[in-house]
Amino acid sequence: MYGLANSNLIPLAGFVSLRNCTLEDHSARTGAGAALVGSAFDAARTGLFAIDFWPTVSVQRTVVRDDNGQVWRDDGSGGGWATLVTGLTVAGAVPFMYPVGAEAAARDRKLIHCDRVNTVQVLAADGASMVAIASPASDWSGANQPGFGVIHQGYNWMGGNANAPHTIYRSTQANHEDFTSSAYTLRVFPGEGERLVAGLSYKGILLLWKYRDGVYAVDTSDNSDTNWRVIKVGAPGAAGAANIVAIEDDVMWISPDGSWHLISATTATGSVRAEDLTARKLGSFVRQNVNLAQLASAQLIFYAHKQEVYLGCHASGQTAKNRRLHLDLNRRTEIGERWIWWDRDRNEALFLRKISEIATPAFIDNAGRLFNLDRADRNANGSAYTFEVFTRDSDFAEIVPGWQGRWKNLRFIQLEYDPRSAATISLEIYADGSLLQTISLTLTAGAAALPVTLPFTLGTESLLTSVRRRVRGRARRVAIRILSTVVNVDVSFTRILLGLEQGE
């Protein structure tokens, strides 16, 4: 973003804030929109968990658990909502839903609902209601119920109930509701952690997480379950069942302290290693800006089409799930992960919803409404939102070592951009932490008039253009902020050039 001849010397982790934007190659673009789908299932209700459920290959349903003990199902278009179950206990419940039964053509597709408090509920195919699981384990009773489940090697594995917090239960292979006829349980390091909280099938290994400490790999490769082994990974545990996500050839999760972790396969026998992302990238940002007490209900998804991970979470000190963290992995091998902070949407239930064969981020808000994310229009269901790029405070000693701690005289600032739409933006220059100058810029839409700033792109996209303004003042350190609060602004910013000279 700093367009100097030797810009490769400037750290790319040079931002204080990337807010409500998208990163595209070497530019920051105003963030993609959110579009309402259909109608609300109940305007007075908040979605707690949602899933894109396909009872058949041609039938799509959005299924939502709300904050009033009800589960809803739409008609496939975000409308025509019907209740599948009512009267579920809300206090202490953290809902989780997942599909079962699609591993073999002969098995019926089902949807499992569990929350550690209520009896496990099952939706069979495209049925009109959820019913209690047919054959639960003998010790699943009252408020002692599983809180998560995962399909692994054709079996349904469930766990997290209060009276057996370190036990994972396995169904029969023929019936994913049957935990009695050929019952199998596995105790996972009962002396460690508080309880099992999440699971994932990964490269033939069953991975299990505990709250607050402990990640374990269950080696089920032997034909005899008596020879199955539990291997401790030794990494921090997970905050909740939806805090785990597979990202192509890896697995990512969030621990209760807000740290982000990766698991990478290293051997064919299932040895894994854990890596803390926040230690080198986010630092204390998550801990300072996210309500860690609410992480158990946060949802982590992987948007494979854009190579981005989304976390729907609560801001620090808030009970509304009104924040998202976007982790951009597109240039991970070159410069590492890039993080973007979103404060635009009430993404109370964040999930992936297939649109034209692409699993696309979507959410349910606090008014029972379904929204699709990553829409082309730059608005939030027709409303404006704040777009912000805020660079770090720099003395530019990376370029001129002798400038460290010295005064610089400011001469000009130049902004290079792709004028996708007409826009009025604010360009703010900060000197030693204080606002020095605010420049209002009117950017015109369409191709730029020649001569243009090179390089530019020919084709359907606009030519890159630039605008320069005089700046007067001096500072030891300088920061730049680009800000837009106007609806439907669609602009990509590619470079910031700052004219400086050494002062007295």
Order of neighbouring strands in the sheet with most strands: 1-32-37-34-35
The residue-averaged pLDDT reads 87
- Strand fraction equals 35-45%
Low-confidence stretches: 1-13, 265-270, 448-462
Structural category is: mainly beta
- Rg for CA atoms: 26 Å
Q: In this structure, how is the largest beta sheet organized? A: 5 strands, antiparallel
Quaternary state of this entry equals single chain
The name of the CATH topology of the domain at 7-30 and 388-502 is Jelly Rolls
CATH architecture of the domain at 7-30 and 388-502: Sandwich
Distance between the termini: 28 Å
The percent range for helix content is: under 10%
* Backbone shape: elongated
Supply the CATH class of the domain at 7-30 and 388-502: Mainly Beta
Task: Tell me the total number of β-strands.
Answer: 38
Account of the protein in words:
The protein is mainly β and 504 residues long. The chain has a domain at 7-30 and 388-502: Jelly Rolls (Sandwich), CATH 2.60.120. Helices cover 2% and strands 45% of the residues. It has helices at 285-289, 332-335, and strands at residues 15-19, 21-24, 27-30, 33-37, 47-56, 59-66, 71-73, 82-85, 96-100, 110-114, 121-124, 131-132, 148-152, 155-159, 167-170, 184-187, 195-202, 205-211, 215-219, 229-232, 244-246, 251-254, 260-265, 272-276, 299-303, 308-313, 323-328, 338-342, 349-355, 358-364, 370-375, 387-391, 408-418, 423-431, 434-443, 465-475, 478-484, 492-502. The strands form nine sheets. The chain has a five-stranded antiparallel β-sheet, with no helix packed on it. Strands 2-3-38-33-36 form a five-stranded antiparallel β-sheet, with no helix packed on it. The chain is elongated, with a radius of gyration of 26 Å. The model is unreliable at 1-13, 265-270 and 448-462 (pLDDT under 50).
